[in-house]
Amino acid sequence: MPTVSLKAHYDGERIQLDEPFDLPPDVPLLVTVLVSEADNDREAWIVMGRQTLARAYGPDEPEYTLDDIRR
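The structure assignment produced for this chain is given below.
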């Protein structure tokens, strides 16, 4: 079965094609939803940052003195 990629958007109720295309009734469709990479990346960075800070300032982290830092 040949495939065609069409740009579309979700208006809150229905999927709407962005350009006219003749589709017969009951034609099978395969819908792929593109999730914004920026949103996923931002959330991943926030989670990673929180985990790193928790490890860096966790209860098992030793207290360093100025002498330790200057060595």
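Interim note for the steering committee: The two ends are 70 Å apart (CA to CA). The mean pLDDT is 84.
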